[in-house]
Amino acid sequence: MRLLTQELLDLLNVQQIDQYLFQGQTNQLFGSHLFGGQILAQALIAASKTTDRPAHSLHAYFIRSGRTDLPILFKVENLRDGSSFSARQVHALQDGEVIFSAMVSFVQPEQGLDYQIDPPDYPHPESLLPEQEHKLSILEDVPSKYRDIFMQQFNILIHPVEFSNPFRPQKQKTQYAEYFRSFDKIEGKLDTIAMHQAIAAYYSDYNLLTTSLRPHGVSYANGGVQSASLDHTMHFHHHFRVDEWLLYDMYATRSSQARGLNFGEMWQNGKLVCSVSQESLMRQRKKPTS
C-alpha cells in the first residue's frame, strides 16, 4: 500500500508558482465530485508554505462544488505576522471562480495551562476490521453502477469501531468512531507538522457529515438525501503523527432546516490532539410520485 500513501502525499503537496500562489491537482475519489477534504488539506499546505509556524486553527467555507477535471489555484494572502501569531487567508479557484475560502492561524509554540476531557474508551484498533473488509461484506447491497466507486480503496487505512451499511440505513445514535492512519510511514522532506495536519484535515471530512444523518435513518448512498459539507473548522491542540493510529470520535448535536451540526475529536495516546466542527447540508430528496 506504499503507493497509496505516496499518491496522497503528492496530491496534497501543492506546487508553489509564486510567493503566495500555489497549484493543486485533483483526483476522482468519488467520481466527478471533488472531495472537500482534499481542498481543506491543500489549502492548509499552501498557507503553511508561507510561514515557519505550525497551524493552530482553520476556519473554512465550501462555496461552490469543485470539479475533478481541473487543477485548483490557491491564492494566499498574508494578513499578519505578529510576535506570536500569523494569519493567512486562502482562496481556492477553478475556472476563474472561488470555490473555497479559509482563514488559517499559525502560532509560535509556548507552554501554558493544560487541561482536557477524559478520553473515550473504545476497543484497540488492531482488534477491529478495516473498512475495506466491511465494504466487501455488503457488496450485494451496492447497486452495480456504484460498485467501482464505493469499492475503491481509500488512501487512508480506516478501522471503524462499528460499521454501518449506508445502503440499508437505520435510525441510530449520532455517535460514530473510527481509527485511522496512513498505510505507510511518512519520511523525508514531507515528514512535517504541516503535512500531518493536512492529512488529518483530509480525512476529517470523510465521514463527519454522516453523524447528523444517523438518527433519521437516511443516507447519502441510497439517494434519500442530498448532502454536502458547508463549512469546516479545525483546532490543532498538540502535535501528532498520522502514520500512527489516531481515534476520530464523532457526534452531532442538531439537525434542522436542512442542515446538521457535526463535531469530531481526534485522539492519540490518550491525548486530545485536534477538534473538528462542521455544518452540513442534509436536504431530503422528494420521492417520485407514481
From TrEMBL:
Keywords for this protein: Hydrolase
CDD domains associated with the record: Thioesterase_II_repeat1 (cd03444), Thioesterase_II_repeat2 (cd03445)
Residue ranges occupied by any Acyl-CoA thioesterase 2 C-terminal domain in the UniProt entry: 148-279
GO cellular component, one term: cytosol
UniProt-recorded Gene Ontology molecular function terms: fatty acyl-CoA hydrolase activity
One GO process term, biological-process aspect: acyl-CoA metabolic process
Signal sequence coordinates: none
Domain Acyl-CoA thioesterase-like N-terminal HotDog: residue ranges: 31-107
Protein family membership: Belongs to the C/M/P thioester hydrolase family.
Protein known as: Acyl-CoA thioesterase
Organism this protein belongs to: Acinetobacter sichuanensis
Taxonomy of the source species: Bacteria, Pseudomonadati, Pseudomonadota, Gammaproteobacteria, Moraxellales
